[in-house]
Amino acid sequence: MVKLLFITVFAFLVTANAATLSTGKIVGGFQIDIADVPYQVSLQSGGHHFCGGSIIGSRWVLTAAHCTVRDPESYTVRVGSTDRADGGVVIKVQSLKPHPQYNEDTFDYDYALLELAESVGYTRRIQSVSLPKAGEAVEDGSMCTVSGWGDTKNYEESSQLLRAVNVPSVNQEKCVSAYASTGAITERMICAGYAAGGKDSCQGDSGGPLVVDGKLVGVVSWGKGCAQPNLPGVYARVSAVRDWIAEVSGV
What we know:
Strand order of the largest sheet: 9-10-11-15-14-13
Oligomer: single chain
Structural class: mainly beta
Number of helices: 3
């Protein structure tokens, strides 16, 4: 599941790696109010949601680099709303700053910073999320919360309203082993999910937050399928690029 929503843009990639990668949405989760995850944003183009992101500063959002392939002039973020299509505040994106080492073939360094055209006004429903220190580790088995408006794989569960799921972080060696056929797990990645599957992020969740104890530890990036047994979701590890985030955004 490369958690990409740009199916047409990346058709060549999905076709070439159909057995390896696929895109991402919340599967096996629950509806949640934006006040419970006030850092969550909907990244939109033409008023339509296509990726998630996290507020890390009054004018900065962290998302996935693979979410930044469209014309930046069409980008907006909706903040402070549980509904991806209504409510909250819509703010234009002034500039896109994908990580300079992003590799679109392997999804290594899958990070991008969005500079907003104006500051968000902090309220109970709009807040920035705490960031880890550079190199800060996540203990194996830590319960992580991932949220978004992505595919639920269940027609009875609408993705119109924000959803979340709790999944444990996975030992790095076990994740490397799970994806041994792709050889794609790097030190910039962190994995989370259940061995039995059933709970995961999925298409449309890309760029969204993976949070442990109120701290943003990962960015929804990719995986193989959604909620498959022994194939945890793969997230871009925030602590691996903490210095870059500070250098670019000042946060």
